[in-house]
Amino acid sequence: MPSYPTHDTLLPRLRRIEGQIRGITRMVEGRRYCVDIIQQLTAARKALDQVSLKVMSGHINGCVSEAIRRRDGEKKINELMQTINRFVK
């Protein structure tokens, strides 16, 4: 059975990312070394990407799969492809 992301698993990750962003803000305010700031920005972006992938996986395993089972999947698949295109740009 697929594992769906839940509020209980996503919210702690998002709160951790929120803390990372606050830390980056303090780094900028403190005029820290640019490379150190970029490293932290990269880490935060990767963490957000992982949350996005978990949400997308849940959407595919839930909403999209259910629409396909109902033989009404074309709209959901098109929506998913648009979302993926935005994600990778």
3D structure, described in words:
- With 89 residues, the chain is an all-alpha fold.
- It has a single domain, classed as Up-down Bundle (Methane Monooxygenase Hydroxylase, Chain G, domain 1), CATH 1.20.58.
- Helix content is 84%, strand content 0%.
- It contains three helices and no strands.
- Helix 2 packs antiparallel against helix 3.
- The longest helix is centred in the middle third of the chain and has 36 residues.
- The chain is elongated, with a radius of gyration of 17 Å.
- The two termini are 31 Å apart.
Globally, the shape reads elongated
Order of helices and strands: HHH
Number of E-type strands: 0
What fraction of the residues are assigned to beta strands by DSSP?
under 5%
Treating each run of at least 4 consecutive H or I residues as one helix, how many helices?
3
Helix content: over 70%
Would you identify the CATH H-level superfamily?
Metal-sensitive repressor, helix protomer
Average pLDDT, all residues: 92
In whole angstroms, the N-to-C terminal distance is 31 Å
Structural classification: mainly alpha
CATH topology: Methane Monooxygenase Hydroxylase, Chain G, domain 1
Low-confidence stretches: none
Question: What is the domain total for the residues?
Answer: 1
> CATH first level: which class?
Mainly Alpha
Radius of gyration: 17 Å
CATH architecture: Up-down Bundle
Largest sheet at a glance? Answer: none
